[in-house]
Design brief:
Helices cover 81% and strands 0% of the residues. By secondary structure, the chain is mostly helical. The relative contact order is 0.19.
Length: 86
């Protein structure tokens, strides 16, 4: 999350994790929402930098990237957990 402070990163991460949780029909707690949102933002920004050489700026741009990244992480987690349980 470029250009924002730690407190704003946590707030954006929590909001992005919550939005991703609702979109994916997942059931997580507040702490996991924050972690998924922040890690999702890192993953999303990394992928954008690899593909386009740039990332989205501003709070809204980072929120969009974090939500997409968190949804991706939830999908990956479900795929891994599903394989291990079978």
């Amino acid at each position: 999350m470029e250009g924002i402070g730690w407190v704003m990163a946590i707030i954006i991460g929590a909001l992005a994790g919550w939005i991703a949780e609702k979109m994916m029909g997942s059931n997580q707690g507040l702490l996991m929402n924050i972690v998924m949102g922040i890690v999702g933002a890192v993953v999303g920004n990394f992928i954008l930098m690899l593909v386009f050489g740039a990332t989205m700026g501003g709070i809204v741009g980072q929120l969009i990237v974090a939500v997409i990244g968190a949804c991706l992480l939830i999908a990956i987690w479900r795929a891994i957990r599903g394989r291990r349980a079978a």
